[in-house]
Every structure is written in C-alpha cells, then in structure tokens.
Amino acid sequence: MQQVKRPSISDVAKLANVSKQTVSRVINESPNVSDKTRQCVLQAIADLGFRRSEVARSFSQGRTYSLGVVGRNLIYFGTSTYIGIARQAETLGYSLLLKELPDSSIDQIEPMLHALLDRQVDGIVWAIPEISDNHAWLDTELFDQIPVPIVFLSMAPHPKASVVAYDNFVGGMQATQHLLECGRQHIGHITGPLDWWDASERRRGWEAALQQTGRPVLPNHMVTGNWDAASGEAAFHRLLENYPEMDAVFVSNDKMALGVLLAAHDKGLRIPEDLAVIGFDDITESAYFHPPLTTVLQNKPALGQLAVKTLVHKIEEKFQTETQTALDSEPLVHQLIVRKTTLMRVP
Amino acid sequence: MQQVKRPSISDVAKLANVSKQTVSRVINESPNVSDKTRQCVLQAIADLGFRRSEVARSFSQGRTYSLGVVGRNLIYFGTSTYIGIARQAETLGYSLLLKELPDSSIDQIEPMLHALLDRQVDGIVWAIPEISDNHAWLDTELFDQIPVPIVFLSMAPHPKASVVAYDNFVGGMQATQHLLECGRQHIGHITGPLDWWDASERRRGWEAALQQTGRPVLPNHMVTGNWDAASGEAAFHRLLENYPEMDAVFVSNDKMALGVLLAAHDKGLRIPEDLAVIGFDDITESAYFHPPLTTVLQNKPALGQLAVKTLVHKIEEKFQTETQTALDSEPLVHQLIVRKTTLMRVP
DNA sequence: CTGTTAGCGCTTTCAA
DNA sequence: TTGAAAGCGCTAACAG
User: Fold this and answer.
1) Do residues B149 and B175 both lie within one domain?
2) d(CA A346, CA B120)
C-alpha cells in the first residue's frame, strides 16, 4: 500500500505544456479552450489518471457540494425516506454527511450544527420529527445564525422554517372514512404519543372524519400508545373497556396495530367480522400480518426526494444570488405538504 | 441571512497579538504554549466566535477524519447496524460520508469509489452483503489501488480483505438445535437466496445440526425463498408437500417466517403444537407476530461498531506509520467473526 | 515558548 | 484563447 501521490492539476499542466488555468478550464468544461488544447490536456489527464481533489476544490470555492443530514436512530423516518434523500442527492451531485442526534437539547444541537458547519456543508436536512418542544431551538438565535439553508422533515408549519411533510391529518381522515364506508359505526382510535406532531395530526383527522358524519367524538374512544406493538396491545384492552360497542379501530401506526391484532385475537374477536382494524404505514410487511392489515401508505422516498430538491434549490439560489448581487434578503420560506397518501386495501 | 465571513485563524492571531502558529498550537492543544498566551488566545477565540475550518484542515493535513460508508438501500443490514456505525464513528471523532450503490457492477463501483477518494475519506466501510459474485472486484486491480483501508461487512473470509461478520453458521445451528431440544423430529428449512453468503451459512448450520444427531439431510427438506414474506408463504406450501411429516421449520429470516405463519394457519396447522417455527432476526416485532415467533437474535449495532473500530484502528496505524517510517508494507488483514448470537425464546 | 516561511490543489481575477 | 499571480485557512518544518 505504498502511497503514490495523486497527480495534481500542476502535474497535468506540466505534462500538457499548458498552465494550471487551462487545465482547470478543461476539467470545468469551460468553452474558452481551443479543441486542440483540450485534447492535449485530456490526454495528459488520462495518462496520469488525474482526478480533481474535491477537498481542494471545496476549500478554494468555499462550498462542498455536500448536505448534512441530521437524524435520530436513522429510524424515525424509516429507511425509505433515507433512500429518497440519498438517491436525490446523488442525482443532483451532492454528498451526504450523516449525523446522529441523540436528543434535542440545545447542548446537543449546537455542537452538532457546528460540526456540520465546520465541514462547510452547503445545506442541512433536519430529519427528526417534531416531538413536543424539540424544535424550540428554532426560536433561538442559534437558528438565526445558521448560514446555510435548512429543510425540516415532518414538522408543523413554522414561519421561519422550510418544511416538507406529509399531511397526516388527511391520512387520518382517509383511514377513518374508509372504516365508515365499510359500514362501521363505532370507530375507536389508538393514537401515537400526542406530543408527536404526526400522531396528533392523525388524531385530528380521525376526529374530523367522525364529526363530518355527525358522530360524537368522546375522549374515551381514544387511547394513547407509544408506537410499540406492546403498547398497542395494552391500549386496545383499555379501549375496549371504555368502548365496548366498538366495531372498528384506527391505529396510528402498524406496529401498534400488530399488538391490536394479537389482543383482539386473545379476546376472541374475529377480524374483520367483529372488528375492523386499519393501521398507518411504517412496516412493509403489514399485508402479511395475520390477518392482513389494511393500512394508510405514504410514499416516503418521495418525501426524502422532495426535501433534497427543495434544499438544493435554495442552495443554488443562494450561490447565484451571492455571485450576482446580494439584494435578496427576504426570508425564503417553503412550506410543502404532500397531500397524497394511498390507502392500501387488503381484501 | 447576510454572509458574515467566518473568522479565521489569522483574525484570532491579530486580535491576540500572536502568530497564526500560536493560535494553531492552542486549538490543537499543544503543550508548548505558555499559560498566559494560551489564555489570551482563548479569549480572542471566544470573542470572535472562531471555529476552525475542517475543510482547510483536511486540505492542509491531507486527511479528513471522515469515513465513507457504502450501502445498498440502507436496508440490507438494517438500521441497527447503521446506528452502531454512526455512534462509533462519532465517538472516535469521524464523520460519515454516505453512498448508495445501486448495483455491484464494476461500472458502478469504480465511480463511487472515486467519488469517495476524491473527497479524501480516510477509510471505507463496505456495508453490502456478499451476494453471488458481487465482491469479485476484490480480485481486480481496482481493489489493489485503493489507497485507504476498507472493512467489509458480512462476507466470506477473503485473503485480501478485512471482514467483520456474524457467524451465521453458528446461528443456523443454534436455531436447529433449539428445535431438536424441543423434541422435534422433522425439521425443514426455508433458506434465503443461496447466493447470499449469509443464507448459505445459515443453511450449512441447519445441515450440520441435523448431521450431528445422525439425521439425514435430504435436498427436498429445504426450499429456497427470496427473503420476502410472500416467498416464505409459497416456500412453506412446497416444503410441506415434499416433507409432510415435518413438525418444525427453521426459516432463514423473520419476514419469510411471517409468511410461514400465515401459510401454516391456512393449512389448519396449530403453532406450536403441530408445527414449531423459528426465524432469524431482522425484525424487531417478531414477538408480536401471531403467534409469537422464536428467532435468532444478532447484536447488530455491535457489528457496526466493530467495523468502525477496526477501520479506525487501521487508519490511525497507517498515519502513524507514514509519519514515522514506511517499513510496514505487509498486508493487514483482520478477519473478525462475531460468534455471539442470542436465541430469543418466546414461551 | 514563539514566529517565519512554505505549501497543500484548486479557483478567481486580471492581463495579455 | 491563454497565462500569471494571488489567495482560500490551516499545518509542517525550521528558526530563533
């Protein structure tokens, strides 16, 4: 593994008998190079196996063509969202710098932001869902001082932030309406932790769907779980006590729905004859649960893609503006809510 | 968002009335600075809010303190492995540069390696499992030319490569032995795609466990699936035809096991009375399947951690060596197989 | 203990 | 269409 120095632009220049500049022009596809010179340079590049150092380029240009991605357990948004992010970034020519944020205290956020900015990321994707006040730092001067664009995934609209999110409200409504259309009369709801924005939006959707049909929405027709299968099981038992006439239940994620299926079976309830269950997409295997689970599907890769597109758009805009004239100082706010959710109907 | 230039080391030097070098010494915690000077510099740093540019540092030092992670769908090793990687990298002060590799043709691999090396990653984690000949490029000069250490996850031992892997063979044996200990006599196996190293190792384990007890291992006591739940379902039907007296089945992953549970139920088989099923860990929810699934657990974060530890060890070694003397040219090969798997027994 | 001088490899700016 | 010079922010190597 002997370290052969990578050839630099000067090596190429020397070999091709031109200046570094000309080489630079060639690798940047500048039109202002004669064909003859270009060929000559390209030949030298090929001969030496030259590759431009991105580090040097980043350094001299002051930008890195890389995006910071801040996540927690990589899992909150599921793998599929990350795939969307990764693919889109690749497509647009950006690299991803991944950071895990253990918790959302300022003590954690500040150093992690600095780590990203010290590496000169061109923009940041904040891939941590909104849970209680974990986005409170947005109202801090810490946020205002961030010199690069940020896009947030799945948080409530915020005046200062760019947000890309699914409309969980609509998803919740859809789920509930589906149950109503199936002729169910008594629709309970097992929510996720209500300090999650996603969970509370789904709950609002459930409520709205019931209200649309003039049904009462009683507090004890709803029990809160913690997303885990075990909590779904427990929640279902409590819910059934509160609401014995319940003939359908909308569960805020698939894992809890799994617990519900188990609990219902233990109670001797037949599904779907005695009880209809609908989940909310976070597992791909829902259709193979026993019995199969109807669920609300979200196109998660699309969410990730949209986030990156939005971010890169802002980045390019920024570098454009900076180059031309620094007139555009109004805050750029994109609030993109993806309304499309698909109901996966299982016969 | 007006761009205030980040203060540089020179700004600090000017303010503190010292040379850039001294500032550099302070931020690098060199002992060769008087307390008085140090205080003065630290004060200036604080006043200016100075942070060292990692890009400039990378550029000048020729190393970036970042690791390239090459994965496919982020999913092959599951989130948990990634968590292990991310945490350990953070702990050791390295950043992660993530790359998705759509397929393993040389046409894909070469540019992606270049992308990583152009950004001067200090090392690479190859987080794509071995499937048929997708590691064939290791025997190519492409591999030999990579100037940084690489660690491979989950591949068969290879003379030129550092590998960190679980012992799927032992896992498969454990699963099978567990069924035998439960008194089962006829143990079928649903394998993953056999061109996956992991799948074929698990199959070998099944075979070995049966042979140990003097049982015959017939080819039609085994059916191959494709990891998906649907394939597990189909495979089970075929297997049951081939092997009607089967009273237990070892399924090579949990998703397929899910399909088996469904299929068994459709056949009117009671679990575990008529049929014992054991899976192999890739879902956290297995215990909530209906009925609950016994599975072989692997400590996946540990695998990721180990990979990063190994890699960073080699990196530091390399930079040491380079600095001191370049005598150490023997290939450094670590083959680490983690033998520990835990059986998750569900009552 | 501290400062000076180079230089990392590229882009930018200005001249020719 | 080409080249020369300067500089990005830091560290390394050598002096003092």
Assistant:
1) no
2) 49
Residues 6+ apart with CB under 8 A from B29: none
Question: How far is Cα B143 from Cα B136, in angstroms, rounded to an integer?
Answer: 10
Instruction: Choose among A83, A98, A233: nearest Cβ to B73.
Output: A83
Q: What is the DSSP track for B90-155?
A: HHTT-EEEEEE-S--SHHHHHHHHHHHHHTT-SEEEEE---BTTTTGGGGSHHHHT--S-EEEES-
What does residue B243 show for φ and ψ, rounded to 5 degrees?
-145, 65
Characterize the bridge pairing of strands B162-166 and B150-153.
parallel
What's the CA gap between B97 and B79, in Å, rounded?
Answer: 16
The string of pLDDT tens digits covering residues B198-241 is 999 999 999 999 999 999 999 999 999 999 888 999 999 999 99
A43-69 average pLDDT score: 95
Indicate if B158 and B305 belong to the same structural domain. yes
Instruction: Give the CATH number, domain containing residue B84.
Output: 3.40.50.2300
Count the helices and strands in chain B (H runs, E runs): 12, 12
Which 159-218 residues of chain A touch chain B by CB within 8 A?
none
> Which residue's structure tokens are 């008594």?
A186
CATH number at residue B26: 1.10.260.40
Number of domains in chain A: 3
| Mean pLDDT for the stretch of residues A201-222 | 96
From chain B, pick out residues whose CB is under 8 angstroms from the CB of A98. Answer: 69, 86, 95-98
Q: What share of chain B is helix, strand, coil (3-state, %, to 5)?
A: 45, 15, 35
**Quick one: pLDDT at residue B237?**
97
Q: Using a pLDDT cut of 90, give the percent of chain A over it.
A: 60
- At residue A332, does pLDDT exceed 60? no
Is 70 exceeded by the pLDDT of residue A76? no
Residue B331 falls inside a structural domain: no
A53 beta carbon to strand C: under 7 Å: yes
A25 pLDDT more than 90: yes
Mark yes or no for CB contact A55/B59 under 8 Å: yes
Interface A-B, measured as beta-carbon pairs within 8 A, has a size of 148
**Chain B positions in Cβ-Cβ contact with residue A86 (cut-off 8 Å):** 74, 98-100
Task: Tell me how close the Cα of A135 comes to any Cα of chain B, in angstroms.
Answer: 20
- Pairing assessment for the beta strands B95-100 and A95-100 based on DSSP bridges: antiparallel
Over 80: is that where the pLDDT of B128 sits?
Answer: yes
The region of weakest confidence among A1-15, A101-115, B77-91, B278-292 is B278-292
Residue B256 in domain = yes
> From the CA of A23, how many Å to the C1' of C1?
44
- Round to whole Å and give the CA distance between B196 and B218: 21
What's the mean per-residue pLDDT of chain B? Answer: 86
In angstroms, the CA A131 to CA A225 distance is: 15
Residues B34, B81 contacting (CB under 8 angstroms): no
Share of chain B above pLDDT 90, in %: 61
B95 is in which domain, residue-wise?
65-166+301-318
Q: Are residues B117 and B17 in the same domain?
A: no
- Tell me the shortest Cα–Cα distance from B135 to chain A, in angstroms: 20
Q: A338: which 2 tokens?
A: 């993806």
A293 and A314 in a single domain? The answer is: no
Residue B313 within a domain: yes
A241-269 mean pLDDT: 92
Residues B287 and B177 in one domain: yes
Q: Which of A292, A229, A259, A262 is nearest to B266 (CA)?
A: A292
Residue B347 lies in a domain: no
Whether B37 has its CB under 8 Å from any CB of chain A: the answer is no
Instruction: Nearest chain B residue to A113 by CA: give it.
Output: B51
B25 CB and strand C closer than 7 A: yes
